[in-house]
């Protein structure tokens, strides 16, 4: 009771403050959602301080408590409570929909929505079916004659009519969770960012029902164009089910691993087309396939004039793509660029080993027809930011470009920021000095990050955590000639930088194998780069060197 009294005293103190000061204070309680790819939170009391969901759940509880103190505080806190909404279980999905049915105005506050359950998962479908009998009678719909209110009435009537059959039947009403999410999005007319957790296995159906429902919404609102939903969504996050991925990737997993696994963004092309302001797409754990080749392409992807013509690019309006934990290879990114002709940002962080079958790379001196280098030269005219990397592409070098190199970068005048592996520039460590680095880079570059990484180092990745001091020393000594070569290249680059790269402001070297440059107790990372840093500073360019955890 003493704790509650202190809280009420503090809240009453807030009551006496000017409203603009209260708003500034409560802004600090606006919860920041975790990054894409995080699993949903465990029980509230089990969350630790450093866990991704800890601050989010505490901020929401604080805002919820303030809503119950007084009407004045509620008027300020409630819009913040609904600004960023995360749904991480079936009960929350139903209750949020119920709240919006009763209070549609609450949906006008939401700018971010994330759903952390896989809507086509049998366990999720079963749980919704079991919860409906307990909650359906508590649903009330706000007064009004709008299209959305009428649609909700029909949806709830359908659920009530078929509830007995729905509870007993398997398969006939599997799309109900997708329908709930569709209606929630219709209520959130000002939402800007949406995260959907999507299947990563063919064992779970894709969200065909959700895509079809959202496609049909435009016709539903043809008489109320001012109330048409989805008009403000500019960012879509497709999160491959992280819990299922964790099971598949677990070395001790006794489960049956599916042949195809990973999120399949190409199957959500109709969502991209249905969100007219969509410009940013983030995907976690995609399956690497970015072609438009589907078993049965949806009607909207077919060319109405000539059915034999290829379908139009399904990423037509997307300007920024971020791939997290991806298995896309250089050839896959070739198709991505083909399908995203307006792309300005391409970021890809690799998942690890590439699952595709090896290609015939005996003629790796020439680029493969589907090489990333060719796509950059021909289909990346708007690209301003490029950050791609791989752990190992041995045997697939021709899918990068001739001799495994991105030769087109030097002609990409639109590129402003670049993060690239040395291996993608030079092909092999022995070629570092053969061509001046300044001649390999885009002419209008502003920021450059170079990853000191070569495919031959991949064998060291798993071994490094077990290295003792003697092994680290042996590796450092063995890399003497490489260090000399790399430093000479960087020194020459610093001298030449203003000859060709007039706009460059920042250079970062990322050392992926720290023991190449570090000798514990004797040689720190920065030791080798003092002269390089001084030369860059003389040219007005900031230089820094970073390493993976040492």
What report would you give on this structure?
This protein folds into 4 domains: about 1-80, no CATH class; about 80-250 and about 260-285, no CATH class; about 330-415, no CATH class; about 420-550, no CATH class. A 12-stranded parallel sheet has the order 1-2-3-4-5-6-7-8-9-10-11-12. Helix 5 crosses helix 8, helix 8 crosses helix 9 (about 210-220) and helix 12 packs parallel to helix 13. The protein has helices spanning about 1-15, 20-25, 55-65, 70-80, 90-100, 120-135, 145-170, 175-185, 210-220, 240-250, 270-275, 330-340, 370-380, 420-425, 460, 470-480, 480-500, 530-540; strands spanning about 85, 110-115, 195-200, 235-240, 280-285, 320-325, 345-350, 385-390, 415-420, 445-450, 505-510, 540-545. It is α/β, with parallel strands linked by helices and about 550 residues long. The protein contains 18 helices and 12 strands. Helix 13 (about 370-380) links the parallel strand 7 and strand 8 (about 385-390). Helices cover about 35% and strands about 10% of the residues.
Give helix % range.
25-40%
Domains (count): 4
| Count of beta strands | 12
User: Which secondary-structure class do the elements indicate?
Assistant: alpha/beta
Give unreliable regions as ranges.
none
Strand order of the largest sheet: 1-2-3-4-5-6-7-8-9-10-11-12
| Beta-strand content bin | 5-15%
What order do the SSEs take from the amino end to the carboxyl end, as H and E?
A: HHHHEHEHHHEHEHHEEHEHEEHEHHHEHE
**Count of helical regions:** 18
The largest sheet is: 12 strands, parallel
Mean pLDDT: 89
What is the fold's blueprint, element by element?
Elements: H1 2-15, H2 19-27, H3 54-67, H4 71-81, E1 84-87, H5 90-102, E2 112-115, H6 122-135, H7 147-168, H8 176-187, E3 193-198, H9 208-220, E4 235-240, H10 242-249, H11 269-274, E5 280-284, E6 320-326, H12 330-339, E7 345-350, H13 372-379, E8 385-388, E9 417-421, H14 422-426, E10 447-452, H15 458-461, H16 469-478, H17 480-500, E11 506-511, H18 530-538, E12 542-547
Parallel strand pairs: 1-2, 2-3, 3-4, 4-5, 5-6, 6-7, 7-8, 8-9, 9-10, 10-11, 11-12
Helix pairs in contact: 2-4, 3-4, 5-6, 5-8, 8-9, 12-13, 17-18
